[in-house]
Design goal:
This protein is mostly helical and 229 residues long. It has helices at 50-55, 64-80, 95-111, 115-134, 183-188, 201-212; strands at residues 2-5, 86-87, 92-93, 165-169, 193-197. Helices cover 34% and strands 8% of the residues. The longest helix is centred in the middle third of the chain and has 20 residues, at 115-134.
Length: 229
């Protein structure tokens, strides 16, 4: 996870260019795990809407590949007349479905032609499962279980004019309950904090385009592929 302000500094990590591609994945059958907490919503009937997606802290459209993976899960769920089961931190799939899904996704991952495609597929799959598994379980604002919501205790502040945070987050940290980076947009709001998920093409493009509009601060090396000056 990386935090930066456009006024103060730019990051020094490598850029992954955006590239759209389609993924076709087939998955096996489902069994429910009665011991795991499970989403009470039905993804088949209620897909991830823009309002729901942005409710988790993003200001972007729903990522294309995340939507594709969720659609495939919905089709499988409908064909089998069964509901997916999730449990544990991070909205992890449970039971026999998880085993079959892991096998199919591992095969799809190996078949992808480039490291960029592999990264984007991994990130989208992680985020898709976390979105579905966290429905009606986590508070959208603080990412804690609804019964432990801390939103009423958070004080909101404004940043000075012209300042902005960029929260560069690994997909495994997305909707993670003990993630402290989320406090940035809880405290300062999405108007002053942009969530950028690592490996999500749309997010990477938005972030790097934004950084490309601002010059590197004096003394910062390797800024957006440049040198210090």
């Amino acid at each position: 996870m990386m935090v930066s302000t456009l006024r103060a500094f730019a990051p020094t990590f490598n850029r992954y260019p955006s590239r759209a591609f389609s993924i076709k994945t087939q998955m096996g059958s489902i069994t429910r795990n009665p011991d795991a907490h499970s989403s009470t919503s039905k993804p088949t009937e209620t897909p991830i809407t823009l309002q729901e997606w942005q409710g988790w802290g993003s200001t972007s459209p729903v990522p294309t590949m995340v939507t594709e993976i969720i659609d495939e899960l919905k089709v499988l769920e409908k064909n089998l007349d069964a509901q997916m089961s999730f449990g544990g931190n991070g909205g992890k799939l449970q039971g026999y479905f998880k085993t079959q899904e892991d096998k199919k996704h591992r095969a799809t991952y190996k078949a992808l032609g480039s490291s960029e495609q592999k990264l984007q597929f991994f990130s989208a799959q992680q985020i898709a499962c976390r979105l579905l598994g966290s429905r009606d379980y986590l508070c959208q604002k603080c990412w804690l279980p609804v019964e432990d919501c801390m939103c009423s205790r958070v004080k909101h502040y404004s940043l000075w004019d012209g300042a902005r945070f960029w929260l560069y987050m690994h997909p495994k940290d997305f909707l993670w309950q003990n993630n402290t980076g989320k406090l940035l947009f809880q405290v300062f709001g999405v108007e002053a904090t942009t969530l950028s998920l690592y490996g999500i093409a749309e997010h990477e493009e938005i972030m790097w385009n934004a950084f490309g509009r601002f010059p590197c601060p004096r003394g910062v090396s390797s800024c957006l592929g440049g040198s210090s000056y």
